[in-house]
Amino acid sequence: DDLPANKGYQCVFDFSETFLPHGLFQRLVCLCLEYVARNTMGEDSVIRKNYAKLNKFRGQDIELWEDKAHQKIKVSTSGDKDDIVHVVQSMLFKINIDVMNGRLKWRTIVRKKVKTKKSVPKSENIRTDLDGFLNSL
Question: 58: buried, middle or exposed (CB in 10 Å: 19+, 13-18, 0-12)?
Fold first, then answer.
């Protein structure tokens, strides 16, 4: 089950001006898991190397991705409360103070997901992509 594409918030923690330290994402996921366990029974959470989906995080589901190539951590929420972004950011501040001695720097980009008026069927997307590719030859 993916999070709704038209509901909730998307947040990017961009470390590209400096660096995204090895293990930071895993520490962040551990703090989020501890938070979920303390406040609810976060059943059916999914944890992978560079991805986590946590259920019942402050009443919403969240997904976290580590994008090592672009030095970013991405967070997506399922609901309309933006306080989750603040909770995750405060966890990053904690890691920065406790582990990195305050040396970590990042930009935070937050946007609310919105429903688009028109959706293009996949077959049209493929056709457009092929047309562009063929025209470039």
Answer: middle
CA distance 4 to 6: 6
Question: For the whole model, what pTM was predicted?
Answer: 0.74
Please give the span between the terminal C-alpha atoms of the chain, in angstroms, as a whole number: 39
∠ at Cα 52 (50, 58), nearest 5°?
Answer: 145
- For residues 5 and 29, what is the distance between their CA atoms, to the nearest angstrom? 22
Report the C-alpha gap between 93 and 36 in whole angstroms: 18
In whole angstroms, give the CA distance from residue 36 to residue 45. Answer: 10
Cα distance between residue 10 and residue 60, in whole Å:
13
Say how far apart CA 1 and CA 74 lie, in whole Å.
18
pLDDT tens per residue across span 83-110: 888 889 999 999 999 999 999 999 999 9
pLDDT tens digits, residue range 17-26? 999 999 999 9
Instruction: Note whether 15 and 114 are within 8 A (CB).
Output: no
